[in-house]
Amino acid sequence: MIKIDVEKELIGSIGKMNLDVNLQINEGDFVALTGLSGSGKTTLLRILAGLEESNSYINVAGKVWQDDKHFLPVQKRQIGFVFQDYALFSNMSVIENLLFVNKDKKLALELLEITELSKLKDRNVTTLSGGQKQRVSLCRALMNKPKLLLMDEPLSALDPTIRTKLQDEILTLHKKFKTTTIMVSHDPSEIYRLSNKVIVMQNGVVKKEGKAKDVLLKTSGSAKFSFEGELLDIVKVDVIYIAIISIGQQLVEVVLSEDETLNLKIGSKVRVSTKAFSPNISY
Ligand SMILES: Nc1ncnc2c1ncn2[C@@H]1O[C@H](COP(=O)(O)OP(=O)(O)OP(=O)(O)O)[C@@H](O)[C@H]1O
Description:
There is one protein chain. By secondary structure, the protein is α/β, with parallel strands linked by helices. It is built from eight helices and 15 strands. It has helices at about 40-50, 95-100, 105-115, 130-140, 160-175, 190-195, 210-215, 260, and strands at about 1-10, 15-25, 30-35, 55-60, 65, 80, 150, 180-185, 195-200, 205-210, 225-235, 240-245, 250-255, 270-275, 280. Strand 12 (about 240-245) and strand 13 (about 250-255) form a beta hairpin. The longest helix is centred in the middle third of the chain and has 18 residues, at about 160-175. The chain starts with a strand and ends with a strand. Bound molecules: adenosine-5'-triphosphate. Adenosine-5'-triphosphate (ATP) binds next to strand 1 and helix 1. One of its GO terms (molecular function) is ATP binding. It holds the Pfam family ABC_tran. This is Molybdenum ABC transporter ATP-binding protein. Keywords: ATP-binding, Nucleotide-binding, Transport.
């Protein structure tokens, strides 16, 4: 069990903001941390890692990492950290990056095998693609068998195909090593696939907590499905109008009557939903 009671006064974009988070996380949980920009997600990870001062109580598997008398420094907190920008040692090869953390060559080779990096093990990390670098970073974070793996938007710089592949590898590694994980993500499909618990932060506090299907799904009533997107354009074709909406990586067209176009503004967020097979659009 991981018990966290974090307090810190932050200076937010509209003035002072209290980061005030009280959580219990079970060992082996995969927690997704989400919420608007500036809500305190990265600061929470940094506090857990011991990179930031705060008034906090942090207890991991019965060991106090931090309370009003103790402050375990970052190198003693058995954590693995994966950042968006990889943070690899650029003068080293793939395997050297891993062995720098821990000399366990058997574990290093096993991690490289799972993430399909075995053939690249002697390559300098600067010659790798973004997806390969992030795999190395993930393997390196697991080399000291952390009690807690912290990942701050690890896949957000990668293109969608590579991203899905890395999600699969993260899942495989999580099943094998059962490392308790907290991952910051803004991507609902990623959160749904990976996590067994979602925490939504807003202005420094936990706004919602629960399983992805209870926290993230917005379909309600008789709506069969529903997507959020951005209205890019409305094009007139003969007597009808077609709204062009970007949803994730896709462009979607929805036919509208002239009346329906009146309240829509190009650039605004819209929701495309369907009841039975008749799509409608609301804003
Ligand atoms: N050490 C600090 N002292 C005071 N304020 C801070 C400190 N660190 C961060 N902040 C402020 O706290 C707020 C939360 O920042 P944080 O980076 O944790 O947000 P976030 O939810 O991770 O945002 P994003 O999704 O954009 O990365 C920001 O307004 C930031 O300026």
